Each structure stands twice: as C-alpha cells, then as structure tokens.
Fold this sequence. Notes:
Radius of gyration: 15 Å
Shape: globular
Number of strands: 10
Largest sheet: 5 strands, mixed
Number of helices: 5
Low-confidence stretches: none
Mean pLDDT: 95
Oligomer: single chain
Order of helices and strands: EEEHEHEHEHEEEHE
Amino acid sequence: MVRTASTMLPLGTAAPDFKLPECGGGEVSLADVSGGKALLVIFMCNHCPYVKHVADHIKSLADEYIAKGVSVVAISSNDADKYPDDNPEAMQKEKSERGYAFPYLFDGDQSVAQAYHAACTPDFFLFDGQAKLVYRGQLDSSRPKSDQPVTGKDLRAALDAVLAGEKPSENQTPSLGCNIKWKEGNEPQYFNPQGTA
C-alpha cells in the first residue's frame, strides 16, 4: 500500500465521460447518472483499509443525498488480477452486504480513473447540475486508527452547498488512501509511487 493523496483535478472540469459494466450486470454511463441536482463519483474498492474505515458512512451518506436528488456512482479501478478481492464478483458481494443503493462499476482498463486523475481509494469527485467539478477532497479528517470519528463533514458541506445553489468553498483538503493499483504499464503521469502524503 502506498499512502496517496488526491491529485486535486482543477475545479470547473467537466465530468469525463464513461460507460462501464456494473458489478451486478448491465452497463452504466455518465449520461445515465447525470441530469440530477449533483453527481458524486467515488473511486473506491473492497480491500483498502481507508475505504473499509468509511464504507458504512458512504452507504448512509449516499442514501441520504440520493433522496435529495443527488446521483451517486462508485467505480473500482484496481488491477483485479493482482487484487482478486476487488474483482466484479467480490464487488457484487460487497455491494449486497453493505446495501449500497448506487451503481458500483468496474473500470477494467483503468481508463476512467486516468480520465478523472483518480489517485487513491477513496477519492471523491462532486459535480454540480451542469456536470462541472465543484469539490474534490476528503470525506472528513478521520483515518484508520485515528481518534477522529467518521462524520463526512467536508463532503456533506460541499453537497449541502450545491443543493442550496451555492459553490462549495474552494479551500478543500485532499482525500487520502491507498493508491489505485495500476496494471503494469498503466501508471499515469501523475502517479507517485513514493506516495504524496
């Protein structure tokens, strides 16, 4: 595991397009999840301790904000050959056991992670109703083995601002987690194998 921070894609970036298989079957595209009040794209996986630490809160936060008109989609881009805990079958089991109400997509060739400049798990990207990036940062300050409770404070503040028709504060703290497990030769230019935090 390499402890890695978000790349902090520029605010205002248009949501990169995608069409990916859903772990339970079928495909989901950006067009399928756009058009709501906001779109939250989460890069995550099953095995990462940073994701496990916040997974229950991701579920409850998603349930709460989906009910308010926010679209939520999660994407796993890890090399599933080297990390079979993150393959689509395991993703479907995780989705079912956690009760995720949002699509959980598999980015097998890792091109979508590269398009979003996703670097770690979890990595959160919040887009407004026009699919422009307004937040990319941490869920909150809690980390595994820290004494900080998981509240979702930072992401919730951004979501609430968008729903109120406002722009979230541009003072955003990068998310932190395990690096995305790139396939050999797929490592993007922005990947720092020494970690960034």
